[in-house]
């Protein structure tokens, strides 16, 4: 793709770094911005700069937040004895959209994937173990994607937590094998949360 300006080419290259954005789509973005007034373009760039500089992560669950504790962890209306373990913020949003869950979350920041060089030490697993050690948690719901990597992560967490006197459950298989949580429809995901089962039962059936 030939560009009439190096400035346009550089801008296209930056947009094309975004997931799912090809160079043609990136060019449309750039040409759209060129039609906007200076104030709108400045607001656009400042929004993302502010996002990067000021965004925080909840010290309790590792969720994205504007303060030290996210709105979910700081809410007195949530059941803090019930913790749902998810891969990232997108899964929190998906579960919250179901309206079927009233506990809190723990975001791992990924799943165990040796092929990608991601091991247990790269994830927020030890902070989950510390939460459970404190004795306030009664149930941990493992709501990871139903992939091989998700199942591997579930099993690792189960081994770390099984010595504690808590219930360890997993979402029901209303979510198809191989599916990622964020792409499940709200009804299916909501039912999977409500109909969660003991993790040990799943092990015994394999």
CATH class of the largest domain: Alpha Beta
User: What share of residues are in beta strands?
Assistant: 5-15%
Strand order of the largest sheet: 4-3-5-6-7
Could you estimate the helical fraction of the residues in percent?
Answer: 40-55%
Task: Count all strands and give the number.
Answer: 7
Q: Tell me the number of structural domains.
A: 2
Largest sheet report: 5 strands, mixed
Helix- and strand-based class?
alpha/beta
The CATH architecture of the largest domain comes to 3-Layer(aba) Sandwich
The third-level CATH topology of the largest domain is: Dna Topoisomerase Vi A Subunit, Chain: A, domain 2
Mean pLDDT: 88
What separation lies between the terminal Cα atoms? 52 Å
Detail the poorly predicted runs: none
Count of helix runs: 8
What general outline do the C-alpha atoms trace? elongated
The helix/strand series, from N terminus to C terminus, equals: HHHEEEHEHEHEHEH
Report the radius of gyration as a whole number of Å.
21 Å
List keywords for this structure.
206 residues, alpha/beta, Helicase, Ruva Protein, domain 3, Dna Topoisomerase Vi A Subunit, Chain: A, domain 2, 2 domains, five-stranded mixed beta sheet, two-stranded antiparallel sheet, 41% helix
Question: Overview of this structure, please?
Answer:
It is a single chain. With about 210 residues, the chain is of the alpha/beta class. The chain has 2 domains: about 5-55, RecR Domain 1 (Helicase, Ruva Protein, domain 3, Orthogonal Bundle), CATH 1.10.8.420; about 75-205, Dna Topoisomerase Vi A Subunit, Chain: A, domain 2, CATH 3.40.1360.10. Helix content is about 40%, strand content about 15%. It is built from 8 helices and 7 strands, in the order H-H-H-E-E-E-H-E-H-E-H-E-H-E-H. It has helices at about 5-15, 25-35, 40-55, 90-95, 125-135, 150-160, 185-195, 200-205; strands at about 55, 65, 80-85, 105, 140, 165-170, 195-200. A 5-stranded mixed β-sheet has the order 4-3-5-6-7. Strand 1 (about 55) and strand 2 (about 65) form a beta hairpin. Helix 1 crosses helix 2 (about 25-35). The protein is elongated and about 65 Å long. The mean pLDDT is about 90.
């Amino acid at each position: 793709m030939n560009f009439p300006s190096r400035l346009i080419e550089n801008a296209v290259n930056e947009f094309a770094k975004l997931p799912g954005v090809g160079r043609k789509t990136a060019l449309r973005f750039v040409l759209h911005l060129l039609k906007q007034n200076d104030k709108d373009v400045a607001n656009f760039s400042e929004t993302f700069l502010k996002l990067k500089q000021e965004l925080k992560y909840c010290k309790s669950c590792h969720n994205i937040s504007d303060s030290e504790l996210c709105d979910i962890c700081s809410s007195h209306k949530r059941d803090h004895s019930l913790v749902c373990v998810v891969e990232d913020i997108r899964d929190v949003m998906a579960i919250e959209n179901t309206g079927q869950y009233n506990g809190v979350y723990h975001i791992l920041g990924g799943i165990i994937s040796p092929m990608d060089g991601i091991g247990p030490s790269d994830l927020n697993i030890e902070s989950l173990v510390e939460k459970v050690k404190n004795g306030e948690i009664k149930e941990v719901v493992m709501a990871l994607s139903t992939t091989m990597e998700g199942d591997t992560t579930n099993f690792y967490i189960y081994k770390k937590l099984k010595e504690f006197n808590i219930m360890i459950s997993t979402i029901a298989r209303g979510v198809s094998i191989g599916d990622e949580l964020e792409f499940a429809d709200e009804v299916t995901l909501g039912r999977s949360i409500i109909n969660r089962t003991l993790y040990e039962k799943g092990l015994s059936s394999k």
